[in-house]
Known about the structure:
With 341 residues, the chain is an alpha/beta fold. The chain is built from 11 helices and 16 strands.
Amino acid sequence: MVGLVDYTVGLTVPGRCDFYPDFFMKSLLRRLRRFVFNQVRAELQGMIDQEKQKARDEVQRLMESRGGLGGLGGGGGGSVYLGDRRALTRVQGMLMYVPTDDNAIAPHLMLGDVWEANTTQVLRELLEPGMTFIDVGANVGYFTLVGRRAVGAQGRVFAFEPDPRNHWCLRNASDVNGFWDVQASRKALWREAGEMTLRRSAGSCGGHTLIHGGAENEADQEHITVETVTLDAYLQEAVGETLKVDVMKIDAEGAEPAILEGMTRTLEANRRLAIVIEFSPLFLGLAGYEPVPYLERLRDMGFSVGLIDAWGKVQPLDFAALPGWFESVDWPQNLLLRRDA
């Protein structure tokens, strides 16, 4: 080392560093290691980001030039790119429209032929021909189609999806499969009628939410105004009478308690109603609800509460072990609510 300043004597000692105090050399080495580590990490991350972007651009180019993904689609039926960030794919023998910029649900539908296999299994076990099924937070329509196929033409299906892109996929999927009787509303269910802000999650068509703070990187999200309605009021207007409802699926990113508050007449009139409902302590907290009192309220309403496990089995909830249970499970999960007449 040349020209180092010896702080012990205040002199520059060419080619020598043994005069430096240990603490100074150790501090210098630590800083040097941090500097090199940060530089290498930044370089590697930049290279990774570039390769990821190249891969995304190449997939997009191939989709646009070839009109689709050939035989890579779910169920072996292929997926066709339609432009405007939409694709048509085949899922379990049914046609579905999906947003190609979604990184949550669309890849599973296009390449895996199923979304939430455990919940799919439970709904199929619950639904029978002639039943009425309500899909709240219908997204691009996967569970709506599963439900409509199960209840048949003699049944009834209502679907609610406030996001315009998702609703387009939902509505057109129903039509292209010949399920013209599906009533697909763009209104958001809530505890009262009015208007609210829907926070649209970039990159995840299943992450849109009415709850402030519920979407990741909320400052970067697009906010749109949507109309809200209670389920009781909607059904009264659509049907004109109290409707027999057999099965519901509610997945609303933290809005589930407010939706239940807006369907008291429906709950009272349908004592044997089964509800598959998303449960997330985080989302509930953002919406202003404590998870334990919320679950206890469901129990007090007469519902048995069970967790749908990864294999599609319903595990009864042990209310005495709730705190530890919250810590042992990855959230969100779906619950099954059932009650005797």
